[in-house]
Specification:
This protein is of the alpha/beta class. Helix content is 45%, strand content 18%. Helix 7 links the parallel strand 6 and strand 7.
């Protein structure tokens, strides 16, 4: 995943977005005080015995922002740049995201400050199990349900599920989502985020009277979400002209063969060296003229210093918080149509909800059932946000935040305060 110059603290951005939505909704101060800040913040030390025998200590976090509308829900990321403020921001965004797609979850997030690329599978397993034991009092299928995020996957979730289940004394598959299919995972979960991005881009093209067939696409971050979105767009007839990952950027103005590029990525772990394309710099990729730009890397990759160079008609935020507020203002002034993250990348948490429902019912669905339900949720949510965008009128990000914050505010008013 590419990182470019960061601009501002992610949690400050999350609070700024909340304040703008709360102001637009004219929320009273009492309601703001009840829904703005996290309910619980846990910081833990995770000691791990490394392969060479020595003990290494890792800082780790689990933040539950809200349980007003249901159990807290959110991924766990392993990354060297994980900070408490980042995790608090991501948990906050998860609350509004779940509300935007109208699923009965609140927001949570977890993370460990580590470099998983330089850790063995055994070290990752021991770290995951120790972390699980440290956050165990906070998690559970009716309380807080983790999922994969940056540099975590279905294997990570299997370790968490097993650790939690062994402690409780019986198997509890619903404690996590994004699990392997053989342990109660859902068909369609792995590609859910990218598929949700695809459905919202379809909706945006319909709204803007654009044809998806032949549309030029640039993808920044060719991980799970970015690669699946690129694949679905390619198969729908769009022309993906450039993609990037942490190893570099590849560009072909005539379009990349995404199937071949995904095969290379699976074999080598990188897109650099793709024989059917030329290499370009990260700043050049963001400045390419295109119909759709998909930032699918980390937070704050498009900021005040580089937003002016962006020449996309649509920005589809597959990543969490890829645009800073300053970048938002620049791009809005240029007439760029932004599909905000809490709408655009909500496919992952939506199918996580489907997985949780299947686990709780002990009844599993076919993949096409998952796709159909996801498409319905994503396109309905897009229309809900678009309605606010057009009627207020309000920028798409503000409209999405107003929808999410408004639903949480309504729930907290109905529930009241106890005792």
């Amino acid at each position: 995943m590419l990182t470019t110059k960061s601009a501002g603290n992610a949690y400050d951005v999350a609070l700024e977005n909340f304040d703008a939505a709360a102001d637009a909704l004219q929320l009273d101060n009492d309601t703001r005080e009840m829904i703005k800040y996290p309910e619980r913040v846990l910081t833990v030390t995770v000691p791990v015995r490394m392969d060479d025998g020595h003990i290494r200590r890792f800082e780790a976090y689990r933040v539950q922002h809200s349980s007003v509308r249901g159990p807290a829900k959110g991924g766990i990321r392993y990354h060297p740049q994980v900070t408490l403020d980042e995790v608090k921001a991501l948990a906050t965004w998860m609350t509004w995201k779940c509300a935007v797609v109208n699923i009965p979850f609140g927001g949570a997030k977890g993370g460990i400050t580590c470099d998983p690329k330089h850790m063995s599978l055994g070290e990752l397993e021991r770290m995951t199990r120790r972390y699980t034991s440290a956050i165990l009092p906070l998690i559970g299928p009716e309380q807080d349900i983790p999922a994969p995020d940056v540099y975590t996957n279905s294997q990570t979730m299997a370790w968490i599920m097993d650790t939690y289940s062994m402690t409780k004394g019986y198997p509890i598959p619903g404690v996590v989502t994004g699990k392997p299919i053989s342990l109660g995972g859902s068909l369609g979960r792995n590609e859910a985020t990218g598929r949700g991005v695809f459905y919202t881009i379809q909706s945006a093209c319909d709204h803007l009277l654009m044809s998806l067939k032949g549309a030029t696409v640039v993808v920044q971050g060719f991980g799970n979400a970015g690669s699946i979105a690129a694949q679905l767009l390619y198969e729908a007839g769009a022309k993906v002209i450039a993609v990037s990952d942490s190893t570099g950027c590849v560009y072909n103005p005539h379009g990349l063969d995404i199937h071949n590029l995904m095969h290379l990525k699976a074999l080598t772990g990188k897109v650099a060296g793709f024989p059917e394309a030329e290499s370009i710099r990260p700043e050049e990729l963001l400045a390419l003229e295109c119909d759709v730009l998909i930032p699918a890397a980390l937070e704050n990759t498009i900021h005040a210093e580089n937003a002016g160079a962006v020449r996309a008609r649509i920005i589809a935020e597959a990543a969490n918080g890829p645009l800073t507020p300053a970048a938002d203002r620049i791009l809005e002034a240029k007439g760029v149509f932004i599909i905000p993250d809490i709408l655009c990348n909500a496919g992952g948490v939506t199918v996580s909800y489907f997985e949780w429902v299947q686990d709780e019912q002990h009844l599993f669905w076919e993949a096409q059932d998952v796709y159909n339900r996801l498409e319905r949720v994503m396109k309905t949510s897009f229309r809900d946000v678009l309605k606010i965008h057009e009627e207020r009128p309000a920028p798409m990000r503000l409209a999405a935040n107003m929808l999410g914050v408004g639903r949480v505010a309504e729930a907290v008013k109905l529930r009241g305060i106890y005792p």
